[in-house]
Design a protein that fits this description.
This protein has 97 residues and is of the alpha+beta class. The protein has one domain. The chain is 23% helix and 26% strand. Strand 5 and strand 6 form a beta hairpin.
């Protein structure tokens, strides 16, 4: 009985870990954010994709440079101005649907 219970608990845990998550980036899974920010000068429209250093917070967008991709169809609108970093770098904000 204990062995069956352990197997069932493990199977439920594994199924929860395997649940699909929204992804932003180059293949890394991340929970969906209410907005994504990136440096305006790094924004590279590429067909149906927007490549940039997309991050879920302004602070992260100001300090991280790893490039990732958002699909245009997943956004409520085109990226909008989002202020500046302490360094003076301009930011844009993308809001998911």
């Amino acid at each position: 009985m204990k062995n069956t219970l352990c197997c069932a608990a493990f199977a439920a845990f594994a199924a929860g870990c395997a649940a699909p998550q929204a992804s932003v980036g180059t293949g890394s899974a991340a929970p969906a954010a209410s907005a994504y920010y990136c440096a305006k000068d790094r924004l590279n429209p590429n067909g149906t994709n927007l490549e940039c250093n997309w991050q879920p917070t302004i602070d992260a967008a100001c300090s991280l440079t790893k490039s990732s991709v958002l699909e245009r169809e997943s956004l409520a609108a085109d990226p909008q101005p989002a202020g500046r970093c302490n360094s003076g770098q301009w930011l844009v904000k993308a809001t998911p649907r």
